[in-house]
Specification:
It holds the Pfam family PTP-SAK. The protein is α/β, with parallel strands linked by helices. It has four helices and five strands, in the order E-E-E-E-H-E-H-H-H. It has a single domain, classed as Protein tyrosine phosphatase superfamily (Protein-Tyrosine Phosphatase, Chain A, Alpha-Beta Complex), CATH 3.90.190. The longest helix is centred in the middle third of the chain and has 14 residues.
Length: 141
């Protein structure tokens, strides 16, 4: 499991830990056991199991159903695996995904952006449409 005090590690209401990260920076806290990568094009194989969601920078996921399923899988895996969610910079797309995962873990949709900004990064969820996506997020398409 991650250490709750490590950089980028978000503690969800259930106590599960999930790490957010910008892929442009290396990690000092070790490798995950599973990664959810939010990028406009497929990442190189990181050497551990992962899911790639096509998600261009400053936009929304190309496939919202696949995104909801990937968020649920990341939350489930975080119960006993070191899971990271990452995009290029680690704020907009990563923050949006973490906010949706927090909703799945019990944070009310209207509070999810503030929760992630308070507990992960103050600039998480960068655009108005990312905020709207979180506010309207449901595990069902």
């Amino acid at each position: 499991m991650w250490n709750a005090e490590d950089e980028g590690v978000l503690t969800l209401p259930s106590g599960r830990l999930i790490r957010g990260r910008g892929l442009r920076r290396s990690s000092a806290t070790g490798d995950p056991q599973f990664g959810l990568y939010l990028l406009g094009s497929a990442p190189p194989d990181p050497g551990w199991p992962y899911t790639w969601l096509r998600w261009p920078d400053f936009r929304l996921p190309a496939d919202k159903e696949a995104a909801a399923a990937a968020f649920a899988d990341a939350l489930r895996r975080a119960g006993d695996e070191r899971v990271e969610v990452a995009c290029g910079g680690g704020r907009g797309r990563t923050g949006t995904a973490l906010a949706c995962i927090a909703i799945l873990d019990g944070v009310p949709a209207g509070e999810a952006v503030a929760f992630v900004r308070r507990h992960y990064h103050p600039h998480a969820v960068e655009t108005p449409w990312q905020k709207r996506y979180v506010a309207r997020f449901s595990s069902r398409p």
